[in-house]
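Q: For a teaching session next week I want to show students how multiple molecules come together into a single three-dimensional assembly. I've collected the sequence lines for a complex. Could you give me the predicted structure tokens for the whole thing so I can convert them for display?
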Amino acid sequence: MPMSARVLLSAEGLVVDRGARKVLRGVDFALNEGEVVGLVGVNGSGKTTLLETLAGLHSMAGGKVERHDGGVPVTVRDSDGQRGDIRGFGLALQSDGMCGDETVAERVRGACRVAGRAADEAAIASMLDAWGLAHRADDRVAKLSGGLRRRVAVLSALAPAALSQEPTVVLLDEPSEGLDETSRELLVGWLGSLAARGHGILVATHDPEMIAACYRIVTVSEAGIVTSESTDASSGSSSIPEPSGPAEFNEFLGWALRLEKRNPIDTINRGVPALVALLLAYTLSTDIPRTSENYDLLAALILTPAFISAIVAPALLKRLAEERAGDWWRAMIGAHSRVWFSVLGSSLILPLPLFALSWFILIGEVDIALSSLDILWLVMIAFTIIDMSAAATALHLLVGDLSRPSAAAGILLQLILIWPFLQLSSALSSVIAGNGSSELALGSTIADIGIAWLSIVLIWAFAVVIPED
Amino acid sequence: MAFRGIGYGLTIAGLAGMVFAAVLGLTYAPSVSSEAWNAPDAYRILYLHVPFAWCSFLSFTVLFYGSLMWYLKRSEAAWFLFQSASDLGLVFGLGVITSGPIWGSAEWGTPWDWGDLRLNTFALLTAVAFFLVLSRRAQPDTAETRDTLSAVGLFGFALVPITALATTWYQDRHPGVLVVESEGSGMDPEIRTLLLLSFAIMCVLFAGLLMLSNQRYRLAAAVAERKAELDEEAMS
Amino acid sequence: MSGMIEAYIAYSIMFGLVIWFSRDLLADITSLEAELEALSDAVDNPSASNDSEE
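A: Of course. Below is the structure for the complete assembly, covering every listed component.
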């Protein structure tokens, strides 16, 4: 039973379209502390849309969604596109929302840390034990059966609340779907215990067992409006861990790095074509005299491997596409998710060694005495390629927004990066020729690098800022 | 446990032997003439490079056998061989495609000859092995995954006979297959002896590593089975 | 250029590969054996500590 009527999450006048269909029309909703609310309705009525909108995942034609942490209203999202910084919460989408390379313990721990809860190992271990996952703690999620994966997903949504001392929002979309009987009972028990601690839980479900555990039922109809009635809930109760103190963690960075370290497909996908290009350039260019009429060609050859590594489709985006993991992270990160995705998905280190390697291998017998200014140009060029990678990632993200990205010819958008590539190539050519100049005149080295960098930043900004998340 | 003992023993013996062969190759092996060779001392690379190449071949043969047995009999033992062979193929393959270009750039001034089918084939073989090793860890272990990866393994093996044949056809930059050639090859008999010795040692090492690796995957399968049992318990 | 340095580099790489692989193999066998024992002891409430992945 609700301990108090304080609101945790509210929506006013929500109007949400999905495609051509108006799914929600003027919906008002409030989730209070200490209650378990069931969201029911026929398939296609908009339960999932409402839940995901409350998580901040969809844009809306009208209305707003607000969080009330500690009594202060913060806009999660509204129809003007305003987004606020919200504290973490528990979320389990209908898809598991996890990339297969994460381990079970990592996932639960990460969900807690993203929500700003410090998660000590004992608490994690006891939660995994309670959910029958202890023997799988260090196994990759991809190796688990569907039922166990669902457990991990649901536990990851409940754990942040369990460890939180302040009332927390938990949104669950069809949590019992794919769960075995034991877990369903456990889930019902946890719902009761969490509500008793003052957390607010919204469960979108058609499962009668779940519905029976709810204190209040909200029905979404095909007309897109919402009605509500209270019930006598049979609330179960389970023992859940003691709350721990809040903490701030930059979990997404850690997640991206860990997964790449475990399965280095980004490095390989970027590095192999680049190295093959380098090898080809080397072995096939031995007959090209390293004289001044060939410096432009030489510069282009030297830049190509790093360029290739910059525009390859990032593995991060594929990881985010798995089971809608990207949507889960978008809900957690909030307004700046696209910026984070574009920066962390790009090739932040690889262009540097590739460029250096290409330089040393291809320069051959060109007679160059590199002044320290020349070295500066080279470093600037290398870093500009890293920025190019961020812009390329932002363009890939743009294509990834389409509902069928695998049917899209994304490479056509990448072509615009040829322009900065040519600018950098021209700058490099002047360095090789010994004409590196820092005058701010058109055609000078610094002008070329500067224009290249500016156009890259513009491209990145357009691709990141304009689309609404 | 006696079997495991053999695996350990062969591996230790192989490693020790490899050290012995290396010392011999680097110091006591005869020098070649400085007129005929650009980098006369770099030739010593072949004492490990050639046996590594052979072990890589062996690995892919075992991989082929494992793939075939998996298809025909769905045999767990075949899958252990498959896993071990892809690991070993990667390790030895990497050794070949790193030591080869090092020798090539010292001796012939270029690390890679695209006209040399063998170099390219080794690189492709190693890439296939790498793909298999990574995929086994990232993909769920189902019959479908094993089928797909076995198909890739069979594809990898198709490269082996091409490479073996190419060693007799292409003489451009890469020395001929020294072990198979007859007495009339003109190779210094001391070099040949040392090479054969190194060869034998690497075979011992290969056998030892293969046994240990099978041991590892057998254990991993037992652990996976136990975890599946615990999954069942947890769900009931 | 006698190429001796190249020989040393190549030998180190080949040794490095084999030694790294052997150590990884032996370490894995040991930890898998430990894990198997821990899992086999676990009854209804597996409280096994897992220290290795795969």
